[in-house]
Specification:
two-stranded antiparallel ribbon, 13 helices
Length: 288
């Protein structure tokens, strides 16, 4: 019979490659990113002995950056709300149709994930473009509008792109939660005289909250830190933190500002996830 210590060492040996990989390619780059905000960088070189908190203090004391962070937050929140509004009905329909229809729906849900997000964003640029865009061309042809509607390079266009791209990350967790429900509870509600709406809102929706919360967390964090969609569908004047970081580092060569903003973006995302987990624990206390 093997001792528990031998089994523990065996598990540690199996986990060692993954731990080393994460340390080299995740932990160390994040530490360097944080450290670049604590030193002066000139001509792409770190100035020796220039440790300072000035860069963090300057950005944290400027209301301009708070406004950009707030816009970034609303972008992530808006994408999360729209993904929930459009994704929940699809997930509910998936659990109510037959096997053949399920296969079709599953292909439609997963198919966008097979295409790169940048490619899909370029597709939305064609659809949402000016007078030659597909939407404006169609609306002008049928006479619903007299002049093109400005959708591209606005928050609305960015939210449309984010919603379409992040939708599978909302649908799949909700499907898992709906599939795990005990159908006898819905039958019991119907047997007690509850209507479909009463059963849906008082039985189905509360029991699916774990999937809703998981999907919301995924969509929010991915949208909050997304770069490609705001950069392409928002244009050069649409400032959110991810695009602003790119501009600071690549165009202005302000590595210090980019490092500080990147650290703050990562930190705020982690804080929001922590707050989300705390709220989820309170909301789901009744499921224990």
């Amino acid at each position: 019979m093997r001792s528990p210590r031998v089994g523990t060492w065996h598990q540690a040996e199996l986990a060692a490659p993954a731990v080393v990989f994460l340390i080299i390619f995740l932990a160390i780059p994040l530490l360097l990113l944080f450290a670049f905000g604590l030193v002066d960088i000139r001509a792409a070189r770190v100035v020796p002995g220039s440790w300072t908190l000035e860069h963090y203090a300057r950005i944290l004391g400027d209301p301009f950056y708070y406004r950009i962070f707030l816009r970034t937050f609303w972008m992530g929140l808006g994408a999360t709300i729209f993904c929930l509004l459009f994704g929940y009905p699809v997930a509910y329909l998936f659990t109510r149709v037959g096997p053949a229809a399920r296969q079709v729906l599953l292909v439609l849900i997963l198919a966008p994930l097979l295409t790169n997000a940048v490619v899909r964003t370029f597709g939305w640029m064609i659809i949402l473009g000016g007078q030659k865009g597909l939407i404006n061309a169609l609306l002008l042809r049928v006479g619903l509008i007299d002049e093109p509607v400005r959708i591209l390079y606005t928050m609305s266009g960015v939210l449309i792109g984010l919603t379409q791209i992040q939708l599978p990350f909302m649908i799949l967790p909700v499907i898992a939660a709906l599939e795990g429900q005990d159908r006898s509870l819905q039958e019991a509600a119907a047997g007690l005289g509850a209507t479909w709406a009463q059963t849906f809102f008082h039985v189905v929706v509360p029991l699916s909250m774990p999937g809703v919360l998981t999907g919301s967390a995924l969509v929010f964090v991915i949208s909050y830190t997304n770069f490609a969609v705001p950069a392409l569908l928002g244009g050069g004047s649409f400032a959110v933190i991810p695009t602003f970081i790119f501009e600071q580092i690549s165009a202005l060569l302000q590595w210090n500002n980019g490092a500080v903003l990147s650290s703050l973006l990562l930190g705020t995302a982690m804080v929001m996830l922590w707050l989300f987990n705390r709220a989820s624990a309170r909301l789901l206390r009744w499921t224990r």
